[in-house]
Amino acid sequence: MDTAARPELETSLIDDLKRGDATAYHRAVREYSPGMLAVARFYLDHSSAEEVVQDCWVTVIDAIQKFEGRSGLKTWLHRIVANRCKNKLRSSNREVATDFSESLEPELADRFNAKGRWDLPPKLQFHESADNLVENGALSDCLDKHLSALPETQRSALMLYEAHQHKSDDVCNILDVSASNLRVLLHRARQKIFLMVETFQETGEC
Amino acid sequence: MLMCRGLAEIASDYIDGELSGRQNLTVKMHLMMCKDCRTFIGNLRASSSLLSAHSAGRPDEEFLRQIDERVTEALKNRATKDSESD
Ligand SMILES: [Zn+2]
Q: What is the value of ipTM here, to two decimals?
């Protein structure tokens, strides 16, 4: 179910949440927590991130009363998470550092010659598609492994943009990065996934 | 002139439609002549849609159940408070 794609469903979910309907919370927790966790992981380590997401849900019970629907529910929830994380960081004085200077992954950059032509071009066309991903458990596991190995900044950008289908403006807003830095984050993360799928397809190994 | 490496650097911007009209045209011209870059762009695009379909980063069920518990408790407290103030 994707309520974001169906505004009337989202409106009725918001009404149910405002009334304090436990079933509605059960549904909403399952639909929105993955994205909220992705946002929190941009700022915090895994267990602090989970803690923030839990705390946010409890505050949502009161905060939702004032929600006017100017933004979508998902964007609103992600902003609550981001603000809470920023406050937490401020109090622990921890900085999030990212290098935005290089747009190519070193492993990919090495595959071009001095003239800028392919030395080691991509050999195969990917035959794995979104459709057969579900049946391919090994590929799915491999994706999981590589996603969790991504730098947190790249993973959050990728998750919000690709998996949770946020608009660039929203992602910049939530993660507090510039538009050009977001482009670098996304591109670097996609290259890593590209390299992973290529290896997987050639060797069958992750 | 746009070389393969230069194209690879801006490949995601091309895929997401973030290039200017002029840059976009330069990429298209290169792609017409270069099979390797066509494969690269196709595969990078496939990687991107694989990710959209893959529900990774998904929290485990135990974590979600913990949230349910805290929410249920908070809802109960709230209901009690409301009835007391009535
Ligand atoms: Zn080329």
A: 0.74
